[in-house]
Amino acid sequence: MDLFFSQLLNGCSLGALYALFGIGFGLVFATMGILNAAQGCYASWGAIVALYAAEELHLPFPLTVLAGIAGGAAIAIVVDQLGFQPLRNRGVGMLGALITSIAFWIIFDSLAGFATGQQSLSFPFGTFPAGMFTAGEVLLPIMQLLTIGGLIVVTVGMHGLSAHTRFGAAMRAVGWDPVAAALGGVNSHYVVIVTAGLSGAISGLAGVLGGITTSNVSFMLGQGLMLKGFAAVVVGGYTDVRGTAIAGLALGILEVFCGQYISTSLRDGFTYALLLAFLLLRPQGLFGAKSFVRA
Q: Which residues are CB-neighbours of 53 under 8 A, at least 6 positions away?
């Protein structure tokens, strides 16, 4: 039973990373209609910036996390303004944006590989909380609890922002029809920049927490989160962060329990089988609307 609860915590922690990344990814798609292949770079660079802040600047853990969040947000805004904004101005569709995002993905992945020396680095011991809580005989690593807590904070915050604020209404308006939103008085350019920054910040947070909990800070970090985060978005629904959070947690738990009780070689197979099932049977996901892609 202790093993079961330990693996459940491992699954929730891993799923929280998938969900955090998925929320950032889904935010861009729901608001801008972009399948952003460069999203993984925001997580990788968030972790790299945070590692630099911890090792070279000797910042405390909270500031280290904020540095990684800021790094992810900054790169997201740069990619959006240099890559996607010119395409929006010319009315280029989703395919052009996808190809552009792939180009930025390759560029920033190459830079991340150069920055890390093509190695998998890790945060030095002492630069992050490494203690344990105990519940009976079950050990609860603080970093895993912080990762799950981070998902809860982001999910509640983003749902409140999108559903109960004027800016959230503006985001929905831009996602549905940016031209009509502009005619209605919405500053679409401002909404897009802030949304890109939020998306990069959330992905950067996922990268920092993932880099610490998996002891892997490299260009491969974002690639791993990208695949599972996309699955969380599809299963949960593009238009509601609650669905993405639930789906990400479910995918993480499924992956860990499959590896523990069935076979580690089938972990990814179960994940993508679930993804395929939702695409065939309920393409809008758990909470998504039946029509979520603007024309």
A: 59, 63, 64, 67, 68
Q: Under a CB-based contact definition with an 8 Å cutoff, are residues 213 and 224 in contact?
A: no
Is residue 10, in this structure, part of any structural domain at all? yes
CA distance 23 to 38: 15
pTM for the complete prediction? 0.92
On whether the CB atoms of residues 292 and 239 are closer than 8 A, the answer is yes
**Domain presence at residue 42:** yes
Domain range for 145 is 2-228
For the record, the structure tokens of 143 come out as: 């970093």
The number of C-alpha atoms within 13 Å of 124 and in the hemisphere containing its C-beta is 13
The answer to whether residue 126 sits within a structural domain is yes
Q: Which residues are CB-neighbours of 77 under 8 A, at least 6 positions away?
A: 193, 196, 197, 200
Per DSSP, the chain holds a count of helices (H) and strands (E) of 12, 2
239-265 pLDDT per residue, tens: 789 999 999 999 999 999 988 888 778
Q: How far is CA 150 from the centre of its chain?
A: 12
- Domain count across the chain: 1
Is 234 inside a domain boundary? no
Query: Structure tokens of 35?
Result: 């399948």
**Model confidence over 66-78: pLDDT tens digits?**
999 999 999 999 9
Of 158, 190, 160, 159, give the one whose Cα is nearest residue 174: 190
Q: Which amino acid, 23?
A: I
Alpha-carbon torsion angle 246, 26, 178, 96, nearest 10: -150
